[in-house]
Amino acid sequence: MLAALLILFPLLAGLLVFFVKGNTARNLALGFSIIEFGLALGAFCLFKQDPNACMLSFDHVWVKSLGIHFSVGIDGMSLLMILLTTFLVPLIILSSFTSDHSKPNNFYGLILLMQMALVGVFMANDGFLFYVFWELALIPIYFICLLWGGEDRGRITFKFFVYTLFGSLFMLVGLIYLYNHTNVDGLKSWAVQDLYTAGRSLAENQQCAVFWMIFIAFAIKMPIFPLHTWQPDTYVTAPTQGTMLLSGIMLKMGTFGVIKWLLPVVPLGLEKWGGTAIALSVTGIVYASIIAISQKDFKRLIAYSSIAHVGLISAGILSANQQGIQGAIMQMLAHGVNVVGLFFIADILFRHTGTREMDKLGGIRGMNGNFAILFLIILLGSVALPLTNGFVGEFLLINGVYQFSATMAALAGLTVILGAVYMLRAYQKIMLGDRNDSNVAFGPLATTDKVVLSIICVVVVAFGVYPKPLNDIAEEAVKTIMLNLK
Amino acid sequence: MKGLLIISGLGILAMLAEIFKFKKLLFPMVLLGIVAAYAFNFMEWKTGMSIPYFDNMIGFDKLAIAFSGIIIATAFFWFILANDYFEEETNLVDHFALVLFALVGALMLTSFKNMTTLFLGVEIMSIPLYVLAASKKKDIKSNEAGFKYLIMGSFASGFLLFGIALIYGATGSFDLMQIRSFISEHAADMPLFFYVGVVFMLIAMCFKVSAAPFHFWAPDVYQGSPTLITALMSTVVKTAAFAAFMRLFMVGFAEISSVWTGILAGVVALSLIIANFSAAMQNNVKRILAYSSISHAAFMLMVILANVRSNLSVNALIYYSLAYSLGSIAAFGIVYNVTRKGNENVDAFNGLSKRNPSLALCMAVAMLSLAGIPITSGFFAKYFVFTAMIGTQYKWLLIIAVLTSAVGVYYYLRVVIAMYFKKQDTHEPITIERSNIIVIVLTTAATIAIGIVPGIVAEMFEF
Predict the structure, then answer these.
(1) Cβ contacts of B399 on chain A, cutoff 8 Å
(2) What's the confidence (pLDDT) of residue B187?
(3) CB–CB of A147 and B455 under 8 A?
(4) Which residue among A227, A267, B131, B176 is the one 20 to 30 A from B337 at the CA level?
């Protein structure tokens, strides 16, 4: 029941917020999202006591004749993803307190609906339901970007929508193909385990076709080179909160999807084409890192750094071993928190100085020391310095890729070096040195801004020093996943 | 059957209204009559018996009743939407009678058992529409539409009649079941001209459902006709034509499916590609919807092509017809109200979200449904088609369908972007009649409702 509640609550809250006027909508949305986080923590405690508690799953027939169930459940991996989602959404809402959005009721209502769909994606145990939530997540974010985005948003959000829908439709065909091969006492079924069985019963060339059909949807969402072209523009144009949702959580839909809905389904397809997919991911890492180095706009730089990070995550997952997948899960959590922090910093810089171009900035450390420290901590988490949250995941990931291929690991390892180059260079340009432009003034931070940044910094350090509670869950979860891969 | 009789009676009544001077009463009487027709139709569904009428010329089996239900319900919404269309015109009763007779033809098409009734149905439905398409007498575009429709429609009717004659020559019967059993008995030695007859009928039906390459009339006719008549064409007429198509080919010619499936696959592929790419280049909303209706026709043809005479594909076609009709009625209702000033281009929708937010929301839902995005009914409609197709040899068509669906999103979203993103110079709010609001809201709500609970429609025919 708790599982269903986690989906139902943001849905109702979102619909309610649509009908509230002005700043009340904002405060109400924040309250609701904190309650949702409380629910997720409740699920966490329950899971700690008994991972198979019946409160953690829910199953109800949706369309009987087609074997479609409204079936959701929380296992180790989805628990972590839900914690990430429900933790980030209040921060994202809080981060918007300093900027005024027109029609706040629609804005926050859409964010809550988005949360509903995201939580649904992470919990769905029915292939059809998974697809429905997957698509549903697209609609709120599309409207958030279209209505509150920056310049040229019509064209850019449009490209984003068509690109992702294109991939999704292929995934739908792939899933229906699997569904058509299921056989449970003569009936077809959408249940995840039945799809696994169906997928494995396919011949090799069929598995390869299904592999690409489904992978293309996930690859676009993450995004993987060469399907990334929608991403930098969309990230830059979207309103900050939209970018945070996209990069912090929505991107994880893709990586999560590969772990749960691709790897166990087509082992032969993975064996044949996994190497190619890893090569694409690694190409993306190097390519995006190099582009990131030459960026002038800070927000765009973060967008490219996100492509690099997600390339490593994807390579780790596709190497399909314990370290790789476990590292991917840890890195998904860390990246979610860090990238939200970074985009928020870009937003603060823009609000205070009116520009995101790094050449025009400089010497901000001298004007606001606290901000400089908070920025530095998040940035170090992002470059995966030991004792920050990024380190655990990145270490495991490179280890995992190494077990697959040493060359790939060496290339993927470049992300550490290149990441440090572009991040530290950005920090240097923005925060250190002299004030380049005499117009740039940087006053003290607003209280809500400080709160958001501090919470993120605490998480960065805390889970860098003591990652055990999350790591234990991830390890157990991956062990179960590995059983399915055998 | 009673529904058919009631609506025929209404048609005659409408012609008498002028003579006996009860024009004012006519509109409520028509609505009541349609509700009654629906009720009788529903009762026949409940009893579930298929009684043949007129020497087995017409028979209302469950399939016919289901399609009739969709047609009658759509017609009910359409009449409410169109009430001021009848008020504007001086010769109102003629138009009532014409629309009602077109409905009679549509109902005959869902329930024919005999080739002659098929032909009668097609003609009874089409001839009033030729007149209605040209009913804006002073508008040259409307005249052009009526004329084009008449020429092309007669051409198709010719094909149909020729096909029926050839088939009669080969099998010695007009009766659908007798033709079917004759084919299965003499499968090996059917003469060549029989197959020519089948292909002629296929071409004629493709004309009627406006599938490429027989679609050329559709965009011009849709654009030129008064918007409400376009709405009628793209919902009631389309549904009826598909019901007929399905019965003719999945019942009558099921035994020789190898002859026509290949051609039909080509028709579907062409329709998908031509319709979606042409729609992407249009500026006129009515033309966009015309091409969109061709693309939806292709999807519905895919179900027939799958030719699994199972309840799955029957359900799929019924669900698709319903989802498409609901989405179209909502869309055309809004287009009708927005384009009243005469500008029918996409930019007429600019800034609609500011001028009338709830109307914009309904249009967005209708567009998303036509584009096939969850959780609207359009998504499930597409899903059912994909499921029906994936077990067949025509998997390549599925790939084309997926690719062109992505193109389809482009032109549906253009309207959404115009409404929410583009600026409009005038900020005057759009006022709509209350009756129109009710129809638009009801159809939009139904679009979402059968998307959330697809089972109520998709399980009409038990597995």
Answers:
(1) 173
(2) 78
(3) no
(4) B131
CA–CA separation, A24 and A123 (whole Å): 30
- Kindly tell me if the per-residue pLDDT of A439 is higher than 70: no
Contact residues, chain B, for A220 at CB < 8 Å: none
Q: Is residue B229 part of a domain?
A: yes
Structural domain of residue B176, as residue ranges?
2-458
Q: How confident is the model at residue B310 (pLDDT cuts 50, 70, 90)?
A: low
C-alpha A179 chain-centroid distance: 27
Nearest to A9 by CA among A125, A123, A99, A92: A123
Interface predicted TM-score of the whole assembly (ipTM), two decimals: 0.82
- Quick one: pLDDT at residue B86? 67
Decide: residue B400, CB within 10 A, 0-12 exposed, 13-18 middle, 19+ buried: middle
* B360 pLDDT above the threshold of 50: yes
- The answer, yes or no, to whether residue A480 has pLDDT greater than 90, is no
Q: Is the minimum CB–CB distance between B456 and chain A shorter than 8 Å? A: no
Mean pLDDT taken over chain A: 87
* Chain A nearest CA to B266, separation (Å): 21
Average pLDDT over residues B316-343: 88
Q: Cβ of B455 and A62 within 8 Å?
A: yes
Interface size A-B, in CB pairs within 8 Å, comes to 72
A65/B459 touch (CB, cutoff 8 Å), yes or no: yes
Find chain B residues with C-beta within 8 A of A179's C-beta. Answer: 387
pLDDT per position as a tens digit, B5-16: 899 998 888 888
Residue B361: helix, strand or coil by DSSP? Answer: helix
Under an 8 A CB cutoff, do A143 and B421 touch?
no
Residue B204's pLDDT is 93
Domains in chain B, number: 1
d(CA A236, CA A95): 17
Question: Is B264 within the bounds of a domain?
Answer: yes
Residues present in chain A in total? 486
Task: Assign A184 to helix, strand or coil.
Answer: strand
Q: Which residues of A touch B383 (CB under 8 A)?
A: 172, 176
Contacts with B, A 291-320, CB within 8 Å = none
B308 in contact with A at a CB cutoff of 8 Å?
no
**DSSP character at residue A263:** T
Structure token digits, residue A57: 């799953």
B438 near A CB under 8 A:
no
Question: Is B263 within a domain?
Answer: yes
B139 inside domain: yes
